[in-house]
Amino acid sequence: MDIQVNQVGYPSSQKKVAIINEFQGAFEIVDDENGSVVYCGETGELTLDNASGSSVSHADFSLLKRPGQYRVRANEFVSASFLVTEQPYDELQQSLLKAFYFYRCGSDLPEKYAGSWSHKACHTIPAIVYTDQNRIIDCSGGWHDAGDYGKYVVPAAKAVADLLLAYEFYPHAFSRALPIPETDNCIPDILHECRYELTWLLKMQDPLTGGVFHKVTTKEFPSLDVMPENDLGDLYLSPISATATGCFVAVMSIAARIYKNIDKVLSEQCLFAAKRGWDWLQIHKEVSGYKNPDDILTGEYGDDEDQDERYWAAAELYRTTGHDRYQQAFLLLVEADFPKYELGWANVGGYGTIAYLLNGEEKGNSKVYSELLEGLRIQADKLVEKSTDNGYLISLSETEYIWGSNMVVLNHGMLLLIAHFFHNNERYAECALNHLHYLLGRNVLNVSYVTGHGTNQVLHPHHRPSVGDGVIEPVAGLVLGGPNRGLEDDCAKTNLAGRSPACCYIDHVDSYSTNEVTIYWNSPAVFVVSYWTNLSYNELERNN
Ligand code: G3I
Ligand code: 9MR
Ligand code: ZN
After folding, report:
1. CB burial string 474-504: b at 16+ within 10 A, e below
2. Can 516 be counted among the known catalytic residues?
3. What is the pLDDT of residue 538?
4. pLDDT above 70 (res 35)
5. What's the pLDDT at 537?
6. 488 lines ligand 1 (CB under 6 A)
7. Domain ranges of the chain
8. Which ligand 1 atom is the nearest neighbour of the CA of 484?
9. Staple 289 to which of 68, 200, 304, 354, CB 3.0 to 4.6 Å?
10. Mean pLDDT across the chain
11. Topology of 1-88 in CATH?
């Protein structure tokens, strides 16, 4: 038996459920400060949760609204301690966003902002163009991708898009200073942080052709304890790809719009770059998917389907410029057969759909607009239905416990919140919150998958700076990949064979296929959490 809760906490006004394995019966909520029992209840019935192979019951204590620090107790077992308060996620949200600062490449991270995780500037040498090794290009800056030090355009675009969408949807969630070196209490830090990445992304566009290099990395991954400033191998710009160019065009179009009144020069640069990238895509209609050259062994981010990236690019360019030629391109691509509601790094169709919907019905084709809007509702309903049938109240099928399954969890949360925005259905928001509860400890392993947050938090992420810096605590605010039934590294193979999908996770530095961190697993977490830090404003805005 075990009792699982969101180890960070529950918003007072929302539904509150703890999950108990192999037990059904009476439970109580105990005040953690004085030991008094503040609530008594009965769990629901035991049901089998397929993904974990465990029978679970739900202990609902939604009626407990008084702020405090509590635990759930049943049958002499107690849960981790958690907070009930109006805004339990303020600190978490700041920390999830601050994580991007810790991912920065190319500048010192001084103690003033990085504390004990400070280190010197890294990867400042120019990169060699792989296909023409006499050319070198400055590609410094930006964020490292993950536990490694590569910088890859495709996942970078997802990360920036999530953050800029979070800012568009929940601006009030970003009023506090993080702080970072650029903090000026005028422009929100999230825009400063994204500008750091955008400035690097602009350097990834080939000045000769307008196509975008897929990535900039060393030839091989350095060993696990190498600090970024000591990773001194030559840097290579891998060949241009259509997927990188498509994502680049999309994210540059978003930036052109968002920075218009904030940084006019950047905004214009982004729009120019986006249009050039689009022209490259028009000349290169048939392009094979990106493959690593034989001697480049870093992450591939391969993806043979580039129509979804083109769809996203067309939608964003149309939203930003209003030029009908982009809409015409979008309307052709919408007919193609790729998923329209996915927010992954490979399947980006969801971003294109959201952009077209956010642009408004009056500026769109009314048939396509209403089909996409209805499709979003159907998708959200499916996620709610799956979550209702799931022991842990999340929408993952057993087959979705893949590398980076926590991204799937968070992307679903994000899609639900966006569906809530368009369809005003509280069940969507409630369901999204259940996905956050899973991430923060209400899962069969009773673990919080965000470093630095939760009683039973992960301590050994596959993250080179956290391994190499000699500091005991890993860098805080990082979202882990989570359970991966594919057992795609030796550590997972040795330790996790035979386990159920939701249990295929190990908090070990060597398990990169379950315990790595990435910018694009953090970014949907920022989006989802920001809804709740913006909560009182969301209600205000809806009522107005
Ligand atoms: O999509 C299929 C699914 O259809 C299938 O049923 C399932 C069965 O295993 O697999 C799914 O594919 C997985 C795919 O991720 C899904 O996105 C692959 O097995 C899995 O190998 C693949 O993993 C990717 C991994 O790189 C290896 O290529 C991760 O998504 C991706 O996040 C990860 O990215 C790495 C970078 O290369 C380097 N930097 C670190 C980063 C994170 O680990
Ligand atoms: O550290 C690398 C991690 O960032 C990648 O996601 C992963 C898969 O590409 O590879 C890791 O590097 C490992 C390499 O693939 C095999 N040798 C051990 C490396 C970890 O130290
Ligand atoms: Zn670096």
Report:
1. bbbbbbbbbbbbbbebebbeebbeebbbbbb
2. yes
3. 72
4. yes
5. 74
6. yes
7. 1-88, 90-448+516-543
8. 9
9. 304
10. 97
11. Immunoglobulin-like (2.60.40)
